Amino acid sequence: MTWNVHKNTKMVAEKFTVDLNKPLVFQVGHLGEDYEEWVHQPIVSKEGPRFFENDFLEMFTRTKWWAIPVVWIPVVCWLVTKSVHMGHTVSQVAPMVVGGVLLWTLIEYTLHRFLFHIKTSSYWMNTLHYLLHGCHHKHPMDGLRLVFPPAATAILCVPIWSLIRLSATPSTAPAIFGGGLLGYVMYDCTHYYLHHGQPSKDPARNLKKYHLNHHYRMQTRGFGITSPLWDIVFSTLPPPMPSRKSS
């Protein structure tokens, strides 16, 4: 932000303008309180912006959607198998996995509502928020920055695993955590499909409308991605969209 000195000697701030032709990450922090408005004015293009000048750092910001199941499904299988080897039958493990998936839907909602949509205004908080989720709202069709990079997911797994291990038995914790990880894979793949797929039948078609409503109409509601369950529970459902008269 720059300052101009007028004849009346008052200092007047000039608003910072982001140059979309330059790497964005270290620019957005300068927006200050204007960041919130800027980041929720989407640019609809399948070509995403450059984040960093450094090619090595830039590489880690792009992830193909199929990398998520390829990396994490084998881990899910290993975790579920571990509970089986520790004495549980498949019929006993199945509800643990389902419980883990349900737990993930609550984590998904909580992170999206309270972390991904936190209001920021300082330089570094704007920068961090843009990296975490703001970039997705600014460039919602950027297919290479729609799913979480595996390294970021691995970091997120640490506190979740610690919480499950403290609250479950040693033999059930792996299956529950595996279910949570499976829920995450379903979430990221569903999220990609809602942006880039063209579902013609319900419930996928309604879920796509539900999520795009969050992006383009009401960012403060509709935080569920794989399901509106927790939006219903916590009263954050968006109001119904106005109906269109058929021609």
Explain the layout of strands and helices.
Elements: E1 2-5, E2 11-14, H1 25-28, H2 35-39, H3 55-59, H4 67-85, H5 90-115, H6 123-138, H7 150-167, H8 173-196, H9 204-216, H10 229-233
Antiparallel strand pairs: 1-2
Could you write a compact summary of the structure shown?
The protein is mostly helical and 247 residues long.
Descriptors:
247 residues, mainly alpha, two-stranded antiparallel ribbon, 10 helices, 2 strands, 3% strand, globular
Description of the structure:
The protein is mainly alpha-helical and 247 residues long. The protein is built from ten helices and two strands. The protein has a two-stranded antiparallel sheet with strand order 1-2. The N terminus is likely disordered.
List the total number of helices: 10
SS-derived structural category: mainly alpha
Beta-strand content bin? under 5%
Largest sheet data? 2 strands, antiparallel
- What average pLDDT do the residues reach? 91
Strand order of the largest sheet: 1-2
**Percentage of residues in helical conformation:** 40-55%
